[in-house]
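Researcher: Quick one. two chains, 735 residues in total.
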Amino acid sequence: MRRLILLSICFPLLFSACASDEQVGSLCPEIDEATQTALFVAYKDQFIIPAYTTVFDRLESLEASLETLLASPNLTKLSEVQDNFIAAYRAWQYAEPFYFGPAEDQLIEDHLNFFPIDLQALQASIDNGFDEEATERYDRGFPAMDYLFYQGTDEAIIERLSDATVQAFLNANLDNMMNRLDLIIQDWNTAFGAAFINNTGKVDGASLSQIINTYNRHFESIKRNRVGLASGILTLGFKDVEVLEGYYSGISLDLLSDALDASAIYFYGGSKNDSLVSLYKLLSDLNLRVNNNLLANQMAASIEQYTAALEAIIVPLDDAILSEDEIIFGLYQALSGFVVLAKTDMPTLMCISITYVDNPSDSD
Amino acid sequence: MRIHTLKMFAFAAFFSAILFPACNPDDLVEVLDYDIPAIYNFEHVSYSGQTQRLAMLTEMTSYMKSGVSADVSLDFDQLTAMYSNDSILAGWQGSYESSKQLKNKTFELVQADFETLLGQMVEASASTANYAAGSAGISISSDGTKTYLFNERGVEPVQLIEKGLMGACFYYQATTVYLGWDKMNVDNTSVEPGVGTDMEHHWDEAFGYLGAPIDFPTNTDGLFFWAKYANTTNAITGNNRAIMEALLKGRAAISNNDLQTRDEAIVEVRDAWEQIVAATAIHYLNTAVVSFDDEAIRLHALSEALAFIYSLKFNEDKAQSNETIDAYLDQLATTADITAFDLTNSTTASILAVRDQLAANFGFSDVKEEL
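Model:
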């Protein structure tokens, strides 16, 4: 143990002068079942099911335009496919935060948005056929389409999309994405959704725990995968913009903005409004405080900070990473500040455990 | 070192200071109530994976150096197999567990660069000519005692690979990975016999990458890689003791669950290790200047220096940014790309300029010519 030896007279009565003014802790708050259920219903009906449904609908539009394109590739049809792709990819940002239950069962992140694309794995899947059960391949989903629809000149893309094996891959990939989304939507509309709204309590696996965990997991993935890795902040200063989400289509900043917007919406229950059923309102009503300040207000202030930091980026994200170190670092710092509130303070004060593993490590 | 002795001082100080009325934080003296041993003989220590990787790089280097013979052309498949520990193709002399390899522990973003360098190593080994700018081959030192194999740009690939991997693998793993947040914020209560707690084990793995015996620096026999280079400049820098004491301090702190002291030791290890890297780079730059007219020695020393400077990138708390390190490399080799270094137009002025910048930035200005 490390010990402090006092060299001065510090009688016990005087110790208060040296004491920290930090809040020592608080008892776990009671959250009645009706409050919890109202929150779960709002999540399910206002956010989760609509988010998945929107992605599915936009993928249907993409599927239709892709069918037309592949039948007879030309630049006009390619442009329509690209527009539908962007619409679907941006919609996905609002569904990605809910990685538990049916989404986890379907390994939906793995199949829809593991990035960056592994080009060797993608080519192998094109050559050998799409394996819908394969996992951790980094060869599929939106990142695969991002590459196939955008990498190279228009002529090169048209030529690529005229290849029968590429066409087969694209169709199989899209089928896989939509099939899995369909199963998720079904599950939310039936058994899982019903169980979710009644799964009160704070233990691991309870709905509140799932919401808090998935909220943090998603936010950390934004910080790490959409900013930290490409910018070199997490990689010893080695920048690598090709690992950005949506690198080939050039929509990385839009996707990042959408992801952060989604996170804020799910915190506020929509736009910031004290009356909406939301995590924000719950934290306010419970009067949870850190250093005597309302946690809800601190989180709201932090959201404003990282939103302002994001808005300071006025060029494509890859350009900003390569030339605007201060701005990117400012964004990363702002995101890190929010993590402290959301991942440390919020679960601690609510007495909910963070159970996801965000730093898998090897043994030797 | 016995921190215990500080207790007596603190005890006396307590009474001598009893008349002072304030409760001032400056008056607090911190002591440890546990011993920091003089040698790395803690209970439950294991770093066999690190020892195996040091041995793999030793074998790999030996194989690469065999390419200097005119009748030896290195085999690319064998060399890459050694890098990734494909035991069937690697032709190891030693015995290594299949899970241990150099490649997957190399900083991920530069693994491909090292595979490119392995290819360059093999290409150079195919040459049977003498080296000349634009033509790969061997060059012999003026005194006839040293023979090196250079590529067409005057770079000795084996140095970039060996010393580069010391940086991108060993140094990176020790200072950034094992002393990093993920590996240091783990369980420190459950002891696995012979291995220690997870936190202890991670610290031991960092120690393993130093390549030092447990009684280093009293014992300087059997030094590998970083420990060997620490010892090279130790008479001037005192780095042997600095890094070993920091490693002993951190491990003792972990075993006594003193995470504040552990965190101090992390900073000290990273700093001391970085000093070893910088001092070694300066040492080789000096060699290049002193032997500038001896082409073989100059190019060999510059290749070593480039690899050590490049290695500075892989410490999480590095004192210099990648941009600054790249600027050093660019001054010496016309590019910061390790796969494209070009030493055919080096000048003493550019070497000394980098030497002086390094010395100033790492606190060696007073001894820069002695290193």
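Chain A has a mean pLDDT of 91.
Researcher: Thanks, that's what I needed.
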